[in-house]
Amino acid sequence: MNMLPRILQTWVLVFLVISPTLFAASSVSRVDSHWSARKRHMREKVREMFYHAYENYLSHAFPHDELKPLTKGFTDSLSELGNLKLQHLPQDYNGSALSLIESLSSLVILGNNTEFERAVLWLSENLTFDVDARINLFECNIRVLGGLVSAHILATDSAKRLVQGTYKNQLLTLAEDLGRRFLPAFNTRTGLPYAWINLKYGVMENETTETSTSGCGSLILEMGALSRLTGDPIYESVALRALRKLWSMRSSLNLVGTTLDVTTGQWIEYSSGIGAGVDSFYEYLFKAHILFGKEDFWRMFQSAYLAVQKYFRHGPCLQVFKHFGLVYKQVLVGDIAAANSSHREFFHVWQKFGVLPERYLLDRQMIHPTEKYYPLRPEFAESTFYLYQATKVYRILRLHYYSPNFSPHCNHMFSDPWYIEVGESIVDSLNSYTKVEGGFASVRDVTTMQLEDHQHSFFLAETCKYLYLLFDDSFLVDQNIVFTTEGHPLPVLSSWQERLPEAYIPANWTFVKTRSCHKHEQVALNSTLFCNFISSFNSMGVVPSYMSIIECKDAQANENILITQNANERRRPSAMTLQVCPATTLSPSDGGQQIESVCHIPDVGADHRCLNDEDCGVDSTNCRKRSCSMAGYCGLWLIS
């Protein structure tokens, strides 16, 4: 008689035990479905934006360089980029289809292989650089050379087969021809290139010797890639010489100026910063390290970043920001909390005006009086995309280590939906304030929303691209990619590496067991990769397939998952994995061994001897940069 009640009690108890899990799974599924639908909707809105801009360019401006959306005209702007005074404009230059070149990789990311093939064939048959046009080396490098090199790689990708049997390296031929025309600019005593060069006649008589830090230090990705593709080392060689010369000109504080003289190798403008004229210099130091594997690039970047953090950062943000250089660097080294704080500061300004002014004084909460314009720049969308990607891993780690009861669903990456909402705001603002019948117009004054008759090519190359990737990053699956400063994707290839960065070597990956998954499963955390490059792959356009590395594994099928390939012992989790920085305590769960510091960079010499500060690393106990003493030893000699 008591049997039925007991069975009923048992089933009630089982239901009470499993129901929270069932309801939680159902809740997560509903939330995930909601955001997936929302992202698909926004992806299509961005697609419409791109084609509205692209098709108006083809209708009213092609094959000239850029569209005038208000008058439905065109401008041959390749000779005007950076030429603020519009000096020495060519008489017979009819454009180089700049906006088409800039759109090539965006077409692939949007999945329009047919239009990509059509554009490639047109450029192959019609584009020439044998024109009497004085161009800015930096702008032509990042926009045209970068666009051609990237599109060539996409066109020759056998897995994608984007061009069906009609492509015979024509874009690479064009890129090499352009690269050859760049070379006379580097014929200076210092190796620093002239800012301006005539594509037909080389460096003109009485050409200005003034250039920017970015103009000398942001050439290595495109010209290095050209060397790797053609087998001719000259392009990478001249760019590398210029970069190293520029680095040798830094101050004792490891800071660089803004403008310099290429013939004397002296600074013209000593003020330093991370905005226009210098931002991509920092960006390319790190990206070059990832793309080519040179440790020199990493050491230069690390020194520069520490200097920027020490001398330019005040409170949660910079007093003056331009081009989101701060967010780039914060995400780059895994400082997600600080990057998020900076990003929210920028979003507050966006909400205040509807778009972003070119320059805003945060300490005074006012627009710079001479820089009220917004030329459809991509940096805010780009930073939003990077942070959204970075938080995929960051949030799951924080939830696990700070909430022992948190159990993420296997093979599911969490990310912060707030960035999706920011992306929606960007898209809505662009459509509300800048979309016109003939395309998308720049904003001359953000306080009045007066428009300017110019649709810059980077709107197609970057702004639309990063917004699309924010809502649909399927293009990045199973690919390791570095985006150039103009948004052109370059693959990370082992054949391009001087020495593969340690974080890429599977033998150096650390796998730590967690309690996040079910009984016979474990989560594999690539903590060495995470420690050295957390989010840096996603920041500034570096996106590897590894970012989905947090997934549940069957322990019985992968019994050796906790064993390194080089040693039959368990590797220790890094401080970044455990959210500790600096790490000075012992962890009982790790056998009483000291946890590796996330910020530690060893001295060059094992005996800690040094010739200068560059031979000293970063201290593991307090994350401070070590310096070289007068006696020639590395240590914490400076009082901060």
User: From the alpha-carbon coordinates, what is the Rg to the nearest angstrom?
Assistant: 26 Å
* Tally of DSSP helical segments: 16
Mean pLDDT: 77
Structural class: mainly alpha
Helical content class: 40-55%
Pick out the low-confidence regions.
314-323, 394-413, 500-596
State the separation between the terminal residues, measured CA to CA.
80 Å
State which percent range the strand residues make up: 5-15%
Extended strand count: 21
Spatial sequence of strands, sheet with the most strands: 5-6-7
The outline comes out as globular
Give a short account of the largest sheet: 3 strands, antiparallel
What descriptive keywords fit this protein?
640 residues, mainly alpha, 3-stranded antiparallel beta sheet, 16 helices, globular, 6hp_glycosidase-like_sf, EC 3.2.1.-, endoplasmic reticulum
Descriptive overview:
- Keywords: Endoplasmic reticulum, Glycoprotein, Glycosidase, Hydrolase, Signal.
- Its EC number is 3.2.1.-.
- Residues 1-24 form the signal peptide.
- Belongs to the glycosyl hydrolase 47 family.
- This protein is mainly α.
- The protein has helices at residues 3-60, 98-109, 113-126, 137-155, 170-182, 213-217, 220-230, 234-248, 279-292, 295-311, 325-332, 336-353, 379-402, 418-434, 458-471, 527-533; strands at residues 66-68, 73-75, 134-136, 196-198, 210-212, 259-261, 266-269, 320-321, 360-361, 366-367, 435-436, 439-440, 442-445, 450-452, 481-483, 489-491, 521-523, 542-543, 552-554, 627-628, 634-635.
- A hairpin with a 4-residue loop joins β6 (259-261) and β7 (266-269).
- α4 (137-155) crosses α7 and α5 (170-182) crosses α7.
- Residues 314-323, 394-413 and 500-596 have low confidence and may be disordered.
